[in-house]
Design goal:
43% helix, alpha/beta, single chain, 253 residues, 2-enoyl-CoA Hydratase, Chain A, domain 1, globular, 11 strands, Lyase 2-enoyl-coa Hydratase, Chain  A, domain 2
């Protein structure tokens, strides 16, 4: 398998495992990553996922050797590139980045909901240096995550952005010392999992759907999500636990 799957409590740790190729995306990795996301989504006991890479690089993007040999897809029907970038998901996914995450690696990171990166991380869209166009979401997701001029400079020069600058501009949620990205991502996942899981998923959905809408449309999206959460058992548990002065016990129902 080119992707490992580990469960710790309610957290799925998904690891890109082609260290000899700097975790570059092959067709097999794309299919294996899609399967891992399928498993995360289908298991009611899992509330959040962490995506990391084995070895000194998070992901070097598309496997150019595979492309040169005729393996040009590197996609899945539902997930697009790497089996992820176009995948419709309901559960949060945290990228834990050690080392370079460039080209398609950056686009994989941009597909995640939160980012923890060590100071060794680098991000970039170098496709223009090879007369290519980044077509796995980077050219429109990057300017949503960064100031437009910063994203434009990266897109036009193909130069990298280091982890400190990515953190300063808001692409990275947590900046840590080398070797600590996964542990910090676990802490962040546990902080998310302390909350009602269905409310978390509804809130994630509103944030993603509403950021490009006018206020009236966004209010409607939020109202629909609220009505869905109102019908859950956890909605009753939250106020009840507050009144009884005890931690809530979430069921995800």
């Amino acid at each position: 398998m080119t992707v490992d799957f580990e469960i710790r409590d309610r957290i799925a740790i998904i690891t890109l495992n082609r260290p000899e190729a700097r975790n570059a995306v092959s067709q097999q990795l794309a299919e294996d990553l899609e399967s891992a996301i399928d498993r995360l989504e289908a298991d009611e006991a899992l509330w959040i996922g962490i995506l990391c890479g084995n070895g000194p690089a998070f992901c070097a993007g598309a496997d150019l050797k595979a492309i040169a040999s005729g393996e040009a897809r590197l996609t899945t029907k539902r997930g697009g590139f790497a089996g992820l970038v176009r995948r419709v998901r309901t559960k949060p996914l945290i990228a834990a980045v050690e080392g370079p995450a460039v080209a398609g690696g950056t686009e994989i990171v941009l597909s995640c909901d939160l980012v923890v990166a060590s100071t060794t991380a680098r991000f970039g869209l170098p496709e223009v240096k090879r007369s290519l166009v980044a077509n796995a979401g980077g050219l429109f997701r990057l300017p949503r995550a960064l100031p437009v001029n910063v994203a434009m400079e990266m897109a036009l020069t193909g130069d990298d952005l280091d982890a400190e600058a990515a953190h300063r501009h808001g692409l990275v949620n947590r900046l840590v010392q080398p070797g600590h990205a996964l542990a910090t991502a676990m802490e962040l996942a546990e902080a998310v999992n302390a909350n009602a899981p269905l409310a978390v998923r509804a809130s994630r959905r509103v944030v993603l759907a509403a950021r490009l809408l006018e206020d009236d449309e966004a209010f409607e999206v939020a109202a629909n999500a609220t009505r869905e959460v109102f019908r859950t058992e956890d909605f009753r548990e939250g106020p009840r636990a507050f009144v009884e002065k005890r931690p809530p016990i979430w069921t995800g129902h």
